[in-house]
Specification:
Elements (H helix, E strand, L loop, with lengths): L2 E5 L4 H12 L7 E7 L2 E8 L8 E2 L4 H14 L9 H4 L13 H5 L14 H4 L2 H8 L19 H13 L3 H13 L3 E2 L20 H9 L7 H5 L17 H6 L7 E2 L1 H12 L11 H8 L3 E5 L4 E5 L4 E2 H4 L8 E4 L5 E5 L4 E7 L11 H14 L1
Antiparallel strand pairs: 1-3, 2-3, 2-12, 4-6, 5-6, 7-8, 9-10, 10-11, 11-12
Length: 378
């Protein structure tokens, strides 16, 4: 499998790591990799099956865009992390949720991970429909006491707070403040004009051994995970297929429907942490540090596994011990990963077209990230 693209002097080891990963793959992943050192792009690579300009479904890496907008609005004084959600959105107070703060919601502590009755695909594609259905939903645990990944709905919930506080959607703020000023190929609502560049997500192709592992560890449809990922409805959508719907791409719900490239994701984090095109960073150091600071740590009730979250963002410094403690970012179900490491001065993004085994952060990210840190150290 060929490696395409360029790297700056000193980053040849990143290209070598990317090539070594591809050499070990049986099926073409359709992978993209982009890295910024400060505001300068120093790695721009892709494999066969895609180009550097291809647009892919990035699943939960979308959440990074939603959290960056939220951080900007907190920084601007338009949102207060310690106000209750219900003070912005009164209907949310139903079923004992009245004391949940925006801080707790962002830290995945609200307990409203899904809907008892489930969502239709049309509802799941629409942040405001998600919010309207969840306002009256009982929480699945005592809010604030535990945490669990609000995988399909966190963007809709936070987005409704944004809309009630400002009169504008999270998608509108993102377009105005982040995507359009930098011309980023990371979209919350893909325009029809960009559709020719979109490549459908391809399903996982597990070996028989991998398939047996997936079946042995599968969550039941009525478990917390099953409800959180809307698997308890008749004929649930396959997760890999979610962004393959034009309705989903067009609506651009902010939990899992972002469409972008590694260039777009890396540029987004570089703009936030370091600034692009001679501009100042979008986030002030104190704002970035607050959103990166760990707010939830322990057993995730939805995943049933140890995890840690900042304000929305995954605690990247715990997931990858060689990253800075205040690194922030998010991964996506098919294997994408995007983050900023302010201490070591880089932004990283990886995407892939074919859904990775076992889902979530694709395992090749470990080696690719290490190669970037080594290059920076030289």
């Amino acid at each position: 499998m060929a490696v395409h693209g360029t790297v700056a002097a000193g980053f040849e080891g990143v290209r070598d790591e990317f090539a070594a990963f591809l050499a070990g793959e049986e099926h073409e992943p359709g992978a993209q990799l982009a890295v910024h050192r400060g505001g300068e792009r120093v790695v721009d690579l892709w494999s066969d099956g895609v180009t550097g300009e291809s647009l892919l479904g990035v699943f939960s890496s979308t959440k990074g865009a939603a959290y960056l907008v939220t951080a900007l609005l907190v920084q601007d004084g338009l949102l207060d992390l310690d106000r209750t959600v219900a003070s912005y959105w009164p209907d949310f107070a139903a079923e004992g949720k009245g004391e949940v703060t925006l801080r707790e919601l962002l830290a995945h502590r609200a307990g409203v991970v899904g809907l008892d009755a489930g969502f239709t695909l049309e509802e799941l594609a629409d942040d405001r429909a998600i919010a309207a259905r969840l306002a009256g939903q009982r929480p699945f645990w005592q809010p604030g006491r535990f945490f669990g990944y609000h995988g399909f709905v966190i963007g809709g919930l936070v987005g409704e707070v944004v809309f009630r506080a400002t009169g504008r959607t999270l998608q509108e703020w993102y377009e105005e403040r982040i995507r359009a000023p930098y011309g980023l190929d990371m979209w919350l609502g893909l325009p029809e004009s960009e559709e020719p560049r979109f490549l459908t997500v391809l399903p996982m192709l597990p070996t028989p051994e991998q398939q047996a592992e997936l079946e042995a560890t599968a969550h039941g449809p009525y478990s917390l995970a099953g409800i959180a990922f809307n698997q308890h409805v008749p004929d649930p959508v396959e997760l890999y297929d979610f962004p393959n719907s034009r309705t989903v791409r067009a609506k651009g719900q902010t939990s899992a429907a972002g469409i972008g490239s590694a260039r777009g994701l890396a540029g987004m984090y570089a703009a936030a942490a370091f600034g692009l095109d001679g501009r100042s960073p979008l986030l002030k150091p104190d704002t970035a540090a607050e959103f990166a600071r760990i707010h939830s740590e322990g057993t995730d009730l939805v995943a049933g596994e140890p995890d840690a979250f900042g304000l929305g963002f995954l605690a990247m410094g715990l997931r990858f011990s060689f990253l800075g403690a205040d690194s922030y970012g998010h991964s996506g179900a098919a294997g994408s990963l995007a983050l900023a490491d302010p201490r070591q001065g880089f932004a990283y993004a990886y995407t892939r077209r074919r859904y990775a085994f076992p889902g979530g952060t694709a395992p090749e990210n470990e080696g690719l990230l290490k190669s970037v840190v080594r290059a920076l150290g030289r």
